[in-house]
Amino acid sequence: MVIEGIVEFFQQKTNVHLTIRKKTLHLPKILVPVREQHLCKVILKKYNYRMEKNKLRVIKDYEKLSKELKEQIKLVYPDGFSQYLIQFRNQKGDLISALPFETDDKIYMIKMSVQKAEELILLDPDYDDDGILKSEIKDKYADEHSDVDYLSENDNYDA
């Protein structure tokens, strides 16, 4: 089960696994109430995970993003994308792999597979051979987008 595209929940015979971003909690099945969604909300509240109810959620391909948004994403993920991908089910029930990115008014889920994420970094001249955003590019983008407050709302952002 997925809540707000960020939390993944699944059950096995004896345990429940709840993944919030990259942290996985393993719980004995006996602790799971009848309504799994309630469990997720309780755990999210316990870990002070904020779920923005008023923000529009957008699933989009990386190629269709604006140049400015791509630059901001690179600032938030300077060491590549693949290790930050999450999985969720869309309205049709299809399993989607995506990179989360939050702005003032939207939460983007940028569709990409691990292979696509690694390929994007490999082919992008802004990243070095080790898949790290080049320092001069990072400084340039940081200056260009210094007025963008929402970058700090993204967990991985390091100003």
Task: Give a quick precis of the structure.
This protein has 159 residues and is an alpha+beta fold. The protein has helices at 36-46, 67-76, 114-123, 135-144; strands at 2-3, 7-11, 15-20, 23-28, 56-61, 86-89, 95-102, 106-111. It is globular, with a radius of gyration of 17 Å.
Structure description:
The chain is α+β, with helices and mostly antiparallel strands and 159 residues long. It contains four helices and eight strands. The protein has helices spanning 36-46, 67-76, 114-123, 135-144; strands at 2-3, 7-11, 15-20, 23-28, 56-61, 86-89, 95-102, 106-111. The longest helix has 11 residues, at 36-46. The two termini are 34 Å apart.
Write the SSE topology.
Blueprint: E1 2-3, E2 7-11, E3 15-20, E4 23-28, H1 36-46, E5 56-61, H2 67-76, E6 86-89, E7 95-102, E8 106-111, H3 114-123, H4 135-144
Shape: globular
How much helical structure, as a percent, in the residues? 25-40%
- The N- to C-terminal Cα distance equals 34 Å
Major beta-sheet overview: 4 strands, antiparallel
How many β-strands, per DSSP? 8
Helix/strand-derived class?
Answer: alpha+beta
* Widest sheet, order of strands: 1-2-3-4
Radius of gyration: 17 Å
Estimate nothing, just give the exact number of structural domains.
2
- Tally of individual helices: 4
Low-confidence stretches: 1-16, 26-37, 46-52
- SSE ordering: EEEEHEHEEEHH
Query: Mean of the pLDDT scores?
Result: 75
Q: In what range is the share of β-strand residues? A: 25-35%
